[in-house]
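Late entry, evening session. Most of the bench is empty. Finally got around to the prediction I had been postponing all week. Sequence below, unchanged from the version circulated by S.P.
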Amino acid sequence: MSRVYNFSAGPAALPLEVLEKIESEIYDWQGTGMSVMEVSHRSKEFVELAARAEANLRELLQVPDDYSVLFPQGGATMQMAMAPLNLTSPTDVADYVVTGSWGKKAASEAAKFCNAKVIADASDKNFSYIPDEASWARSDRAAYLHYTPNETIAGVEFHFVPSGDVPLVADMSSTILSRPIDVSKFGVIYAGAQKNIGPAGITVVIVKNELLDKARSSNPHLMTWKSYADSDSMTNTPPTFAWYVADHVFSWLKSKGGVSAIAKINERKASKLYAAIDSLEFYSNPVAVDCRSWMNVPFILADATLDATFLEESKAAGLTNLKGHRSVGGMRASIYNAVNEEAVDALIAFMTDFQNKYG
């Protein structure tokens, strides 16, 4: 069976080179006579893997020395609770910018643990834009400001880093490793793995060390960032296979020239897909041009009655997982690092043919 072009929003496509490497090692990893899924996370071999993965991620993102890099479980959704639990007391205020479903969910989760204040909300226009930063109703004494640089569902992306004096907390699940970022501008960065890092099951958290002592004393051990920092993310048995795959993905990304090189490819992929959507009368993108996402490209057919036909025929053509999120409908092409330009070109060709056939 030949591989398809996978435009899934997550779990997302993995690099073919990484999958081939995994296949070659699956029964006997590093001469241990065991799969990496069978070795102890305390073994010399796995401890070396964990250290290498952290070192490579630090190199790729140029993480400053005064930040800890953590690999907990639970995904970005668990970090939505861990942020207030590690940075606030129950009476503290935390500011939230809501530009999509995940920002809304993060604010709702935080409201269980602190005074979560939504200071900007783009729901009035179906999460199709980013409110002007000058209009944000910031709190005087916020413990932090949380935002979602890229909203996977709506396809809205910040092409700037918010300003301010309070720690900046960012859910970078759908944008991490897709381009260079200045980590020093953030207090906390967290990201679920299943977009640009590896399979679901592991999370990356990058936290400034000076924030590690702000956690509530009542926190469960596994809900405290410092417990992971103190144990090299082995507070309990970690998701070893997901960590192993992430290690291979980091090495693959380095072999491609790092995030600066992949950023050029990602920008080119997104630009040509948006250009096609804008030029083909049969399709439209609902997002304001200045905040279109590089990673998640939603588009709508001029005739919604053809949605099912589009999905059926695109799948038959080897283009999969193009159905838009159930909350918004339409189509969505997620074009993460592992989705190559050939896949984007194939999608554009199919869209053109489909318009010619039904338009």
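Two things to note before I forget:
The mean pLDDT is 96.
The radius of gyration is 21 Å.
Will write this up properly tomorrow.
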